[in-house]
Structure formats: C-alpha cells, structure tokens
Amino acid sequence: MKEKLLERLVRYTAVSTPSDRVLAETRKPSTECQWDLLRQLEKEMRDMGLARVELTGDGFLFGRLDPSPGCERAPSVGFMAHVDTASDAPGLGVVPRVHDNYDGNPIKLGGGTVLSPEDFPALLKYRGDTIVTSSGDTLLGADDKAGIAEILTMAEYFLSHPEATHGPLEFIFTPDEETGCGMDGFPLDKLESKLCYTVDGGDEGEVEEECYYAWGAEVSFTGRAIHPGKARGKLVNAASMAASFAVMLPRSESPEATDGRFGNFWVHHIEGTIESARLTLFLRDFDREGMDRRLAALEAFAAATEAAFPGGRVQVETKKQYLNMKEGIAAEPRLIDFLVASLEEEGVVPLRTPIRGGTDGSRLTEMGIPTPNIYTGGHNFHSRTEWIPLSAMESCLRVLVNLVSRWARAN
Ligand SMILES: [Zn+2]
Questions:
Q1: From 18, 109, 222, 340, which residue has the greatest number of CB atoms within 10 Å?
Q2: 386 alpha carbon – ligand 1 mean position (Å)
C-alpha cells in the first residue's frame, strides 16, 4: 500500500487548494479551487465502490463502507480530513517533490528554501526513507492531504481484503478547515457515525484529545477629536487608548512567550484614529476557569483604560470560537483506549499532546460527536519547509486498519 499512499499524496498535493479566511465568512467553500479536489475525490470514491457517496452544495463530501457480514452491530466510525491548505505560506502552484532514500543531508529546494537536519532534527529519524517536500516556493499541503491519502488508502485496503472485517465506516472530507469556519454549516443530519477521528495531526504517534478553549474579542475605543491647538484637557485619543489597552495585556502571556499547557492573549489586529479605534484579539486557555479569568481581565483592562482617558469609552465584545474537546471525548473512553492500543500494537510510541489550536474535531465534539485527532506523519505544516516521511504515512495506515478492526469487535 506504500506506493498507493505516495501516489495519492502526490496527486492530491498537486491540486492547489488554499482557503481564504476573509471570504470564508461569506462563501463556502471560500475558494473555487477546493471544488477541484472535492470533485476528484468524489469520483475516486465512487470508482472505488464506496456506498452513498455524496458531495453537498457547501463542499462537504461523504462516502461510506458498509460493514462486513457479522459486523453490522458494530458502531459506525467516521474518519475526517480537510481538503484546503493554509493561507500562511504561498499555496498556489504546488509542485510536490519526492526524495527517495534520504541521506541525512540538507535538502536544497527552490526559492532558497533549505530543509536541513540542523533546523529540523526529526529528519535524521528518517534516513533511508522517502521524504516528500514542496518545490520550496510553496507549502506542500500534506496538511491535510496526507490525511485524505491515508483514509482513502485504508478504505481501499478493506475493499480489496474482504477477510479483514470492519464495522460501518464513514469518510468525510471538508472545506475551509484552516479558516476556522470549516464546520459552520456542517450537515450533521447526514453524518451516520456517532464517533469520529480526524486524521490531521503532525508527528508520528501524535494523539490529540485536548485543545484550547478559544474566544475572540473585539475591543472598541471611542475618543473625542478636537483641534490639537485647543486640545488640552479635551481631546480623547482613541488610537492612544487602544495602544494603552494592548500594553496592559501581559507580554508573558502572549503566544510568542508561551508553550505547553500555558494559555495566552493574542493581539491579532489593531487599527484606529483619534475618534475610534479597534483591537481584535484572541484568548486561549486549556482550563475553563483560566478562560473566565482572561475574559474578566479584558473587562478590568477596559475599565482601567477608561479611567486613564477621562471621557473615552471602551467596549468589549467577546465571542466563543471553540471549546476544549477533552470532556466530550472522555465520555467515550474507547476512542482513545482503542487508538492507543492500536499504536502500541503497531510499534508506534503514542505522543499524547494537547493541541495549541483547534481542529474540526473540536467543533464536531461540541456538536455531540466526540472526535480526537490522529497524526498524519507530516512536519512543519503551513510553511515552505513542510515535509512528510513515507514510513510515517505507512504507520498511520497500519494504525487506522488496526483501529477499525478493534471497533469491528465492539458493539
Ligand atoms: Zn490540518
């Protein structure tokens, strides 16, 4: 199945599918190019012989594999991946490159991009392996086309090995994951599974069952403009208020100063004039109480800013983005128990790390479908130095097959 994985990864990454954060708020999928891959996958799933293949008008693609005889009572399990790529690095005109028998030296790509073990020591674990990169001018898009390749190769494995029994399986490919709006309008009524996994993680062995609590905040500042010659004691500068508010956010609790289980305040956008200014920020925390403390802090900073700028007004509006999926996933312990057992049986060391971000799985978990995340094997996502070793894709495939056979025996 190794050749199949590689062939699929190369074929899918060659279809460029960057999504667009701004357009995603009004259009689904946000970019036309995502349809190219969705339609190609739809045809591939039909040709393969999957059941009830359906592509919705919003770009959600479903396909199913009916259970083997005797496994009809096993729970239906969904496997999900996204078709879009991030807009943080150039994503159009992707030309995947396959480096056979990697020798452990720096890989010189185009556009001056160098993939070197000095910067990325994980490369040395994969000496002798086949490494896939971009041309160096764009990202690769193994995030998450490796996930799609792994899921469909797993489907193909079960179709061609009737002796390998499985319960009902469902495959779901979604648009716009990278925009954070990927699950808006997800047709939950079409989903036949009550349990899912996303295949969208990084390093070999990664199991992700926990993510941030995430809130967004819009802070608006209203000042008062007066001719600067007569401004003393009268002018209230909204731009200065916004700057003063931003400085109150603890620098030690910024994304650039935190890792592991520490949350943060993330200033994303600031703009303004004397009369009005606006600050967009994101709040991240692994604990619910921690998030409440951050939300309360914004109100306190707003009051402090008003006190420092008499006559000025500060308004804080907050909005939930996604919730930590930990609790939802804990409600079905077999999701992680089976996955960890499969990893161990396939000789892969489980790396259980909290995600410093969210996934479509966190949104799906909120909708009542607990959905942890499984590794794809890729590295350096969202960058020109994105790379993936073929052996990690292969181990992911073995883990998926093992996992499905465990669920086939459950009821
Ligand atoms: Zn992804």
A1: 18
A2: 12
Buried b (16+ CB within 10 A) or exposed e, 350-387: beebebbebbbbbbbbbeebbbbbbbbbbbbbebbbbb
Residues assigned a catalytic role: 84, 177
Cis bond before residue 350 (omega within 30° of 0): no
> CATH classification of 213-322 is 3.30.70.360, yes or no?
yes
Tokens of 328: 């939802």
Residues that place a CB less than 5 A from ion ligand 1: 143-144, 200
Residue 138 CA, ligand 1 centroid: distance in Å:
16
How far is 46 from 50, CA to CA, in rounded Å?
6
- The CATH number of the structural domain formed by 2-210+324-408 is 3.40.630.10
Residue type, 106: P
Digit-coded pLDDT (tens) for 109-166: 998 999 999 999 999 999 999 999 999 999 999 999 999 999 999 999 999 999 999 9
Helix (H) or strand (E) holding 375: strand 373-375
- Examine residue 129 and say whether the peptide bond preceding it is cis (omega within 30 degrees of 0): no
